[in-house]
Amino acid sequence: MIRRLVCISLLTVLFACGGSGNNSSETTPPVKNEIISPEKLIALHSDLEEVVAHSMSTSGYFSENNWHQHFGDAYMYGPAYDLAEWKLTDNEAHYSRACAVLDNNLKLVENDSSDIYGSLIQAGPTAMALLGLIEAGQFIDDSRYAEASETLLEKVDALSMLFDDYIEPQFGEFVENSYGPTSLSAIVALVHLEQAFSYPERNREKHINRADKVLDSIHDKVWFEDNSAYRFAPRDERLTLYPNALMMLAYGRAYQMTKNPKYLERIESIFEGIQPLKDEKGDHYHSPYSAEMMGALDHDYTTLSSQNYLMMALWMAYLASNNLHYLDEIDKILGFIKENLVVDGVIVHHWINGRAATVNDPVTFCSGCNLQTIYILNVIEQHVVAQTMGSAIAPSQQH
User: How many whole angstroms separate alpha carbon 230 and alpha carbon 270?
Assistant: First the structure.
């Protein structure tokens, strides 16, 4: 079992950080570190993964081969978490659950490939299902997933090119009112990069080149030099977190695959640009996109989803730069989540008006966001395993 091979190493790090090494059903506050590392992140925050994973598996959020209460996110982060956990533990239940969701994703992606306009209107579920199929390629060899993702991506890309690689907000409520056209266009670039990363034998260079063109088009259209950040939309100069986190994430993956220095420069610029969104306590970033809808009375509003995407972006920034400051930011955000958003074994949807979300709010909980958080922790753990064992975890052939 791979996780057991590095258990002693992680416990050593935990004791070095001042932790007790004891597990409990509750999460424990993070220990303040002068120097953070991936090993320390896992040692300090593995309790969050354990508590949330237990709740996800035992509280009825998954039944009849589907995740529930997930707002589309579980199409990606359900199987992504399960496949990573399967690799780390050899637990076949995670493999089986992942495949059940992936087969549902396959049907959704194949159906949407015949109605590309409709798939863009429903961008959230379709994008997550597509990314789920793509992520699976890092763990299992199933040509159905590769072919379906390639087919849908070709059609999305053709439409993207018609609009000069920036998808404007007329493509539905999701795009116009939630995450914005900059975020959606960034997802197009990110999907190209993930396809090239997970299925390198299928038009790798083409996908990398197209991602570069999309990223440059976004940069030309909505980079706001005064803020050192990307606009939510061409005529919307608000500083918001989602588009900038997604662009950071895409640039991080692009740099990992090409080593083009412009990507690293843009990551650093975005990070500086989003600092006005950081709370005065320094442990989370404000995400104003749904603040009004949720009834926020002040600027200190954030969502679990926004912090997740920012942590993913910060992780890719760390891999690109080896700058430990990005890890320190992840550590602080995880500490905020553990101290403020964990309620009855799950992470609630948002922080608002000085409190965690409650049942009186329009939205209280998202299983997909919880899965995303523990997926992020598993991604970092896989990195630790790869470093400890001296090689990356190679994709496995399907059973």
Answer: 8
The rounded distance, in Å, linking the Cα atoms of 126 and 128 is 5
What's the predicted TM-score (pTM) here?
0.90
Find the angle CA(373)-CA(45)-CA(381) to the nearest 5 degrees: 70
* C-alpha distances in Å from residue 156, one per residue of 27, 112, 114, 267: 42, 10, 11, 25
Q: What is the pLDDT of residues 2-42, one digit of tens each?
A: 664 455 444 444 444 444 333 334 565 544 545 799 999 99
pLDDT digits (tens, 9 = 90+) for 77-133: 999 999 999 999 999 999 999 999 999 999 999 987 766 655 555 557 888 999 999
- Answer whether 248's CB lies under 8 Å from 235's CB: no
Write down how long the chain is: 399
The tokens for 299 are 């600027």
- 286 residue type, one letter: H
- Distance (Å, whole) CA 41 – CA 314: 13
Helix H or strand E encompassing 303: strand 302-303
308 CB-contact burial (10 Å; exposed 0-12 / middle 13-18 / buried 19+)? buried
**Look-up of token digits 């550590």:** 331
> Contact at 8 Å (CB) between 88 and 2?
yes
